[in-house]
Amino acid sequence: MPASVTIDNQRSSEINSARQELSLAREESDRLFEILLPQFLYERPIAERHRVIFYLGHLDAFDFIQICREGVGVTSREPALDALFQAGIDPDSNHLPVDLPSDWPAVDRVRDYVRQARQAVDRYLEEAPGDAIYMALEHRLMHLETLAYMFHNFPHTTKVQQQPSTPLTGVHATPLNDDWCTVEGGEAVLGKARDGSFGWDNEYDEHRPVTPAFRMQQFKVTNGEYLRFVSDGAPLPAFWLRSGDTLHYRGMFESVPLPLDWPVYVTLREAQAYAAWLGKDLPSEQQFHRAAFGTHSPCSRQYPWGNSPPNPNLGNFDFKRWDPEPVAATPGNESAFGIRQMVGNGWEWTSTKFRPFSGFAASPHYPGYSANFFDDQHFVLKGGSPRTAARLLRRSFRNWFRPDYPYVYATFRCVEN
């Protein structure tokens, strides 16, 4: 078979796969918007972010801009709406948006724009560069998580109640006694090799720093453990509510008595304070990689459990649940050093500032994606949450937020150096 035919067949297979993934991601985003009662689409559940109506247009605007306008050179029929919905904002409590609901188009106008954008994307998908397609796909998947925690911040009465896919277990559990695991010294594989598969610019290049031995908590810090810190005077995390003498966890669709064996969701500042109170440290990005993907041999793993792709039995990720599950669940999700759930059930804060790796080059298609945040004001998170898509669980993927941002599904664990 001629090489050109092989290349064409490979391209056709990749496009079909991307088309299917994009279709599933659209379905997931459409279901997500249906959760919110229509009268609240122009509300802003988080002061630092746009109103919901922006995101209704933004996901498909980004798809059209990257795939059609920039990727293929298609002239837009709606340049004003492209500009309006093109870019989000960095959530910063010191610089809040001040727009009004009246500044935004009517919802029917936005939905018509979305329909046109999708038609154009479907028409020109085969002509678009692969990087543009996967950039649009992963951008949408990332926003599915952003929107989830935004909607989490809405009162329960604003949402269409849904039956959870799995029950909210563990609400009466006792605190878990956390063990410490020794992580042997050795290479930590960070970053991504330039192997032709898609990656965001901040993932490159792959490098292998030697990491000294350290000890790490086997489980993420639980609500039960953090409760002792609160009892010693620390403020309540954003996901906790006090009702009389009882503490509750504020779930997506209901509040439940505080589940003591679920991971605690906190800001970096709160995680740092807890670690200092315990006399411990937070792990660096390098230590996280060594603990999650390292082994007792020179080989490393693609995931903590091995090299097989993620599946629902291995962890709380890929839209499996709206809320956490016990930190000791999914025993198959364990690293070579016996550390549980380093992927899923909550992103994990690291002590590492979000900075470029050696060899970094800004993406020509989205030059500000990472470079705008190399400001020493953002810190790296690793792992993934219940609402993190499977393709974003790859070893090299990096998340980042400001240290005082309280809304993200982020937890932590401590280390002894």
Description:
This protein has 417 residues and is of the alpha+beta class. It folds into 2 domains: 3-158, Up-down Bundle (Four Helix Bundle (Hemerythrin (Met), subunit A)); 180-416, paralog of FGE (formylglycine-generating enzyme), CATH 3.90.1580. It has 9 helices and 12 strands. It has a 4-stranded mixed beta sheet. It is globular and about 60 Å long. The model has no long low-confidence stretch (mean pLDDT 92).
Core attributes:
417 residues, alpha+beta, Four Helix Bundle (Hemerythrin (Met), subunit A), paralog of FGE (formylglycine-generating enzyme), 2 domains, four-stranded mixed sheet, three-stranded antiparallel sheet, 9 helices, 12 strands, 32% helix, 10% strand
Based on secondary structure, the structural category is alpha+beta
What's the main sheet like?
Answer: 4 strands, mixed
Tell how many strands the DSSP assignment holds: 12
Q: Span between N and C termini? A: 57 Å
One letter per element, helices H and strands E, the order comes to: HHHHHEEEEHEEEHHEHEEEE
The CATH superfamily of the largest domain is paralog of FGE (formylglycine-generating enzyme)
CATH top-level class of the largest domain: Alpha Beta
Radius of gyration: 22 Å
The order of strands across the largest sheet is 10-9-8-11
| Poorly predicted tracts of residues | none
- Beta-strand proportion: 5-15%
> What count of structural domains?
2
CATH topology of the largest domain: paralog of FGE (formylglycine-generating enzyme)
